Amino acid sequence: MTIIDGKKISAEVKAELKEEVDALLAEGGKAPHLAAVLIGDNGASETYVASKIRSCEQIGFKSSLIRRDSNVSEAEVLEIIAELNNDEDVDGFIVQLPLPDHINVDKVIEAIDPKKDVDGFHPINIGRMAKGLPAYISATPYGILELLKRYEIETSGKHCVVVGRSQIVGLPMSILMQRNDYPGNCTVTLTHSRTQNIKAVIQSADIVIAALGRPEFITGEMIKEGAVVIDVGLTRVVDESKKKGYALKGDVKFDEVAPKASYITPVPGGVGLMTVAALMHNTLKAARKEIYA
Ligand code: NAP
Fold it and tell me: Which of 156, 215, 268, 274 could potentially form a cystine with 249 if both were Cys, beta carbons 3.0 to 4.6 Å apart?
């Protein structure tokens, strides 16, 4: 069994990106600029955005943070997006999710210029990805593809079971794993809360990608011997023994599943760190106008 080291791979990806940025600057180009919009004071969102800004600093990107209270109006958020769309210095930007209930998330995502949508959430980017056209691929699925690639994990002809059909993880992941490419060429089953006999479905998987947000849902008995297990789940669970008062739990019961798996991602130290690295990669692509002219 191999533990997939997201920390090591994300550091490698970031070091490669830094080299590319250094070369860009040496040629007289400008530093790629990522902006983040953060609404409210959700602790997890604060942590994610701080980590994205830290990564920008490490790689040599410029970053901007636009913060508003949770009572900001939808109209003001849309105005901020319009300004970022028109700001020539900003190559790409993200609006950190989740948003407060009074703000329509689809309206916000659709307001983002697809050319600057480095989170890959805009319907145009999702549609282009589904058609196999150049597109920003949402960061978490993109990071998972990179892990599969760097560990040279065989995917062709395998049965891949994705658990969870969210717009940002499960759905794009299922599309990517079935495409005629590497990683890909899987026979994909996309499961969700209404899937019947989910245990048997997961037991038949060669590759399991768990993104449901239910800590330790996937147990050892659900996993076929030798399966590849990718754990996207990241849930804060109260743990008084920790300094922060909580522990981060994945969707996979690691101790039971790891001995049966051929490859497995830990939580933390797996997919989460790759998500940030993938966002940085998308931002460099935006600065270079690799996806859209
Ligand atoms: P989400 O929007 O909450 O969607 C959860 C999905 O799981 C839904 O499709 C839901 O089905 C399905 N589901 C829930 N309970 C289930 C069950 N008992 N059996 C089968 N399917 C079930 O989730 P998300 O935003 O994709 O996030 C999923 C997890 O990944 C969370 O823990 C989140 O924190 C984590 N995450 C991590 C990263 C990272 O960088 N590591 C990035 C994004 C998300 P229905 O559609 O039927 O409701």
Answer: 215
pLDDT digits (tens, 9 = 90+) for 106-125: 999 999 999 999 999 999 99
User: What is the C-alpha to C-alpha distance for residues 168 and 125, in angstroms, rounded to an integer?
Assistant: 12
- Residues facing residue 218 across a β-bridge: 252
Tell me which residue of 25, 37, 130, 47 sits closest to 85, measured CA to CA.
Answer: 37
Task: Identify whether 244 is a catalytic site residue.
Answer: no
Task: List Cα–Cα distances, 42 to 85, 100, 213, in angstroms.
Answer: 25, 10, 17
Which domains does the chain show, CATH number per domain? 12-118 (3.40.50.10860), 139-271 (3.40.50.720)
Summarised one tens digit per residue, pLDDT across range 49-96 is: 999 999 999 999 999 999 999 999 999 999 999 999 999 999 999 999
List all residues whose CB is within 6 A of at least one atom of ligand 1.
140, 163-166, 168-170, 191-195, 198, 211-214, 232-235, 271-272, 275
Give the pTM: 0.96
Residues 6+ apart with CB under 8 A from 274: 6, 9, 10, 13, 140, 143, 144, 146, 147
CA separation for the pair 241, 257 (Å, rounded): 24
Largest CA distance in the chain: 58
